[in-house]
Design brief:
The chain is built from eleven helices and eleven strands. By secondary structure, it is α+β, with helices and mostly antiparallel strands.
Length: 463
């Protein structure tokens, strides 16, 4: 069985040349012929009208000499008219003699046109006097057809050559830019610095879209890899958290109740964060499957704030010049939000405030009610944030004043708050301090089961 060879490939220019040249030749020939034929018909009509006038004039001129019997004068008039380039031959017949005057230079037998008439002594055509015939030579009109057709064909061919040259240049540019696009597809790079400059806007837009898609694909791959690592870390951290909780339970007799509570809440928060990472990974990996939505339960804002502030106050024991204070409502406030999300947001914001006040300052954490919203404010008298940084820090992320900051806390907080139909506002002045205000809708379902800060421990889940 023979092996089929690979068919040779050809450039688009060669295919275009094979189709374009025959079409141009056929079209130019047809159009040239039509134009030349139209010119011939117009010129012939005009020529015949002119020749008819010439014939009638000559017949009127020689009529009188024939009546008078002066054939010599008629011959002279015939010889004069025969000098005309359009006259092939003149013939005058009378009763007694025939006069013939022909142009000896004319040898063509094509394109001849003859006009003749009889002459009478009286208008009633009863007395025949003679006969006049003139043969006109119109062969130059036929020659003009080929001449004009040739000129038109040459013009069309030249136009086609110019058009083909222009199209060839365009195809060459298209082929070059297609090759550049193929390089982008082969390398799959989203680096705009390495993206070639395109002269054709459509290719430029396509290259930008390809670069953007590659960037998105690369970012998605990196995010998935990071999520895999985070999931693995969250999974592996379970064991030390369980050990920590067991150790805390064993040592609870010897620990201060406040410290013991803070440590328990801290361990539980680490557990919640690990569970959130694992649940997010599971949700993203099974996005196409139907999942029952998580039921929103009201949570106590005051209880969660007290737990976080107690944890941060314990952290500040080594810096007595820094204080974290709370001012809450007399009546507990409830919102519909995951406790773990709320605690992480408040914890991150208080950490930012602690960094801003450094080793001296105060942080006030307040909770108030405004209409149907719960407003949590975190105000510090630290270093503050410049106005230029403040405009972009929530939208584009970034870290201010932290050497090892990643700039993810505020962006993540804004995303989660907006997920629960809330909003976050930041006002700051350098050298004075920063105020962060979070507005969240209050829960109207007071009778529902309330979330608590104490959830199932990892030890129980592992069991």
């Amino acid at each position: 069985m023979g092996i089929l060879g690979k068919s040779p490939t050809r450039s688009i220019q060669r295919y275009f040349l094979r189709i374009f040249i025959p079409i141009v030749l056929l079209v130019s020939t047809a159009i040239s012929g039509l134009l030349a034929w139209n010119d011939y018909r117009v010129n012939k009509t005009s020529r015949l009208d002119s020749q008819k006038l010439t014939f009638e004039t000559f017949a009127a001129v020689v009529r009188q000499p024939l009546i008078q019997g002066s054939l010599i004068e008629a011959r002279i008039r015939a010889n004069e008219l025969a000098q005309n380039s359009q006259i092939f031959c003149i013939e005058i017949k009378s009763i007694s003699e025939t006069i013939q005057s022909c142009n000896k230079l004319k040898t063509s037998s094509s394109g001849l046109h003859r006009m003749d008439t009889d002459l009478y002594f009286s208008e009633d055509a009863s007395n025949w006097m003679g006969h006049i015939s003139i043969t006109f030579d119109n062969s130059d009109l036929i020659a003009g057809i080929w001449k004009n057709a040739g000129k038109n064909a040459i013009g069309f061919v030249l136009l086609a050559v110019i058009l083909f040259a222009g199209l060839s240049i365009g195809f060459s540019r298209i082929r070059i830019e297609l090759n550049e696009l193929m390089k982008i597809l082969e390398t799959q790079t989203g680096d705009k610095k390495k993206t070639p400059k395109f002269k054709i806007s459509e290719f430029s837009s396509l290259a930008e879209n390809l670069s953007y898609q590659f960037e998105v694909t690369k970012a998605a791959a990196e995010a998935k890899a990071a999520l895999d690592v985070a999931r693995q870390v969250a999974h592996d951290i379970r064991s030390p958290i369980v050990s920590l909780q067991v150790a805390l339970n064993a040592a609870q007799v010897h620990l201060d109740p406040t410290i013991k509570g803070v440590l328990n809440h801290s361990a539980q928060r680490i557990s919640d964060i690990a569970n959130d990472v694992i649940s997010q990974y599971t949700a993203s990996s099974k996005s196409s499957e139907y999942r029952v939505p998580i039921q929103k339960l009201p949570m106590s804002v005051d209880l969660a704030l007290n737990e976080i502030v107690a944890e941060k106050s314990l952290m500040c024991r080594q810096t007595p010049q820094v204080s974290v204070q709370t001012k809450l409502n007399t009546e507990d406030t409830f919102i519909e939000m995951q406790v773990s999300d709320f605690k992480r947001i408040i914890s991150n914001l208080i950490d930012n405030a602690l960094y801003a006040v450094s080793d001296r300052g105060s942080i006030d954490v307040n909770c108030t009610r405004i209409a149907n919203e719960c407003c949590i404010s975190i105000v510090d008298n630290g270093s503050g944030i410049s106005e230029s940084v403040l405009k972009t820090i929530l939208e584009k992320g970034g870290s201010f004043g932290k050497p090892n900051g990643k700039g993810l806390g505020l962006q993540w907080a804004k995303k989660i708050i907006e997920k629960y139909n809330g909003r976050i506002l930041i006002s700051s002045k350098e050298g004075v301090g920063t105020a962060v205000r979070i507005f969240l809708p209050m829960s109207m379902n007071r009778n529902a089961k309330v979330q608590t800060g104490v959830q199932l421990s990892l030890a129980a889940k592992e069991a």
